[in-house]
Specification:
The protein contains 16 helices and no strands. With about 375 residues, it is an all-alpha fold. The longest helix has about 70 residues, at about 295-365.
């Protein structure tokens, strides 16, 4: 039986179920401590496996396209935060202050890796450049996101978390050290990780679900759903939609204005307009250890699902245009071959006729 189109993917359903579980059965006391410890171990394992999986050769293959990477980098870490800050006077009335802090945090995050590459491939874009750009964004985000959080998010709420330098130290200890350990272990376990991608997927999604459960357990224990009215949730959907629409427009028209090819435009759109749930939630746990973590990750969760749905439609449209362009070229090539064949046949018929006449004349002369 085919899966209904309106039904979200399995992971999104698991996220919703996890939020519901934390809302009705939040972790308390020693259980909360145990879940926090398990979550930290899962996050370390996640970044270790990502370090072991990331191929330096694949990254270097697309690294020479510096103009494309510069535009994606600017979209991710410059334009996105500017849009979030600039829209605060316009959109903040739609949500609670804690939710808008989550929106600002969302704007500081690196781009996705897996989905950006997948959508670029579906849309027939520049896949090697997408691999390089998305991977570099995820790696640089370990250093850049804490600084942006300190400059933008904590600037709007001084009690939200630690200083940027403390945050960088925590990020390096909990995320970068396991990542580097994975890179150093790549020769020994890289092929095994490639053969067991299901394990990486389980650790990837499992760590996110654990962080979501612990974050929402803590938030529910402090009265999250009593603090966020239904209208604020609807307003949050509107805020996410506005920011995503602006960034899709900025990346699309910037790529065209700067003269990039259609393939490069696709890569820029899908790498420059998306934000990483896999990196964002673990970072939030480190950066906002003393802040309203549940309210801060909620915008990211909604934005993640929204960007997947919208970018899936865009990828299909790009792919359809590519197929239509190829079909048009094939028709033109066929028409060109047909006209050439007709011209050739037209030119040979008189020759054949003349040849026969000459033959008849010769025969007559012989008689």
């Amino acid at each position: 039986m085919a899966r209904p189109r309106f039904l979200p993917d399995n992971f999104t359903l698991m996220l919703v179920a996890t939020v519901a579980l934390a809302s009705f059965l939040p972790a308390h006391g020693e259980g909360e401590v145990a879940f926090n410890l398990l979550t930290n171990v899962a996050i370390a394992a996640l970044f270790f496996l990502h370090g072991a999986k990331l191929s330096r050769e694949a990254v270097l293959a697309g690294a020479t396209h510096w103009r494309l990477h510069l535009l994606v980098f600017a979209s991710t870490f410059v334009i996105f935060p500017i849009v979030g800050v600039a829209l605060k006077p316009v959109l903040s009335w739609m949500v609670t202050p804690e939710l808008y802090l989550g929106i600002l945090f969302l704007c500081t995050l690196p781009a996705t890796v897996q989905s950006a590459i997948a959508f670029t491939s579906i849309a027939r874009g520049n896949v090697p450049a997408a691999v390089c750009s998305a991977s570099a964004s995820s790696l640089f985000g370990i250093f850049i996101t804490p600084v942006l959080v300190g400059l933008i998010v904590i600037h709007h709420d001084g009690n939200t978390g630690a200083s940027p330098f403390d945050s960088i130290g925590n990020i390096m200890l909990q995320l970068l050290v396991p990542f580097i350990a994975g890179q150093l272990s790549r020769k020994a376990i890289g092929k095994w990780v490639e053969r067991n991608r299901t394990l990486l997927k389980v650790v990837d999604q499992g760590s996110i679900l654990l962080v979501v459960y612990t974050a929402f357990s803590e938030a529910v224990n402090t009265g999250l759903w009593h603090q966020i009215p239904l209208l604020a949730l609807l307003g949050l959907l509107g805020c996410c939609a506005v920011i995503l629409a602006i960034m899709l427009a900025v990346t699309t028209y910037s790529a065209r204005w700067l003269g990039f090819s259609r393939e490069d435009e696709i890569t820029i759109v899908f790498c420059g307009s998306k934000k990483s749930l896999a990196s964002g939630i673990p970072m939030a746990k480190v950066l906002f250890a003393t802040g309203p973590l549940g309210a801060i990750v909620l915008p990211l969760m909604l934005f993640h699902q929204m960007q997947l749905m919208v970018c899936a439609v865009l990828a299909q449209r790009y792919a359809n245009r590519a197929r239509a362009a190829q079909a048009g070229k094939a028709v033109k090539a066929g028409a060109s071959n047909g006209s050439t064949s007709g011209a050739t046949n037209g030119a040979t018929k008189p020759v054949g006729h003349d040849g026969k006449a000459d033959g008849g004349a010769k025969a007559g002369a012989g008689h």
